[in-house]
């Protein structure tokens, strides 16, 4: 699964799943062994990460929503994704 960004110990990945419960645009984030799947509109599909890291992730998604949507389309078409700036 392609790594889009890493910041404050959070690793953000994205891949296109054509079937199943994750077929809407979403990201997978991991922090210290905890994982969360969250849609680009901020809805948690499954999992959890610590609250303070979740707030950072939400802010990052809001800042980079257009880039995330672009990457989702690229991956859906089998094209190369691009990395997204980390939260600083």
Automatic annotation (TrEMBL):
Cited Pfam families: DUF4160
Protein name (database record): DUF4160 domain-containing protein
Lineage start: Bacteria, Bacillati, Bacillota, Clostridia, Lachnospirales
């Amino acid at each position: 699964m392609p790594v889009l960004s890493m910041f404050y110990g959070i690793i953000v990945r994205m891949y296109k799943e054509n079937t199943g419960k994750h077929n809407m645009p979403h990201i997978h984030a991991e922090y210290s062994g905890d994982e969360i799947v969250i849609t680009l509109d901020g809805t948690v599909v499954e999992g959890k990460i610590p609250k303070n890291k979740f707030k950072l992730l939400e802010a990052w998604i809001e800042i980079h929503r257009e880039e995330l949507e672009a990457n989702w389309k690229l991956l859906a078409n089998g094209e190369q994704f691009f990395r997204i700036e980390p939260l600083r």
